[in-house]
Specification:
two-stranded antiparallel sheet, 39% strand, single chain, mainly beta, 12 strands
């Protein structure tokens, strides 16, 4: 059963998964191997995975002002990072989504609840820019992941911008 906003406070260090609503059994994947210091442009790899392995588990971390960050459960202190620079129109998406050591401004999200129990992740630093996942053809596990994860403008509740949060 998907998590709701009311469930967030009780999670603590319980790992969660981030499941696409548009692509069956496709999860957000974060590979933070070698990410041991903060860099201006981030590093590591964020993409998609069919099914859940070690790289598809996160710790939901509450931040000030009602924001949240996603820390990798496999790579301690490595967070989901989204830079929405230049994402100002709808289309195929843009910006950069990768990893960051520590949670700075590009690692914080407003979780926008949707009527179907899912969430859209608005980038806190880039108003009206949302995390986007496209996984056409992702139908089997791939060791290094596949698909596209980037940002989309004006896409609260969009087809590629909705995710279910579940206990791992």
């Amino acid at each position: 059963m998907p998590l709701s906003t009311a469930d967030f406070a009780a999670l603590g260090d319980t790992p969660i998964t981030i499941l696409s609503t548009a692509f069956p059994n496709v999860y957000l994947r974060l590979d933070g191997f070698g990410v041991t210091t903060s860099t201006d442009s981030g590093s590591g790899t964020v993409n998609c995975q069919y099914g859940v392995g070690t790289h598809e588990k996160y710790l939901l971390r509450a931040q000030p002002e009602g924001l949240f960050s996603f820390e990798s459960a496999t790579f301690p202190n490595v967070y989901l990072r989204a830079d929405g620079t230049g994402v100002t129109v709808t289309g195929p998406g843009g910006g950069t989504v990768n990893c960051q050591y520590g949670a700075g401004p590009y690692e914080k999200y407003k979780l926008r609840a949707q009527a179907d129990g899912s969430f859209s992740f608005e980038l806190a630093t880039f108003p009206n820019v949302y995390l986007r996942l496209v996984a056409h053809g992702v139908t089997a596990f791939a060791g290094s992941g596949s698909g596209i994860v980037n940002c989309q403008f004006n896409a609260n509740g969009g087809g590629h911008e909705k995710f279910l949060l579940n206990v791992a």
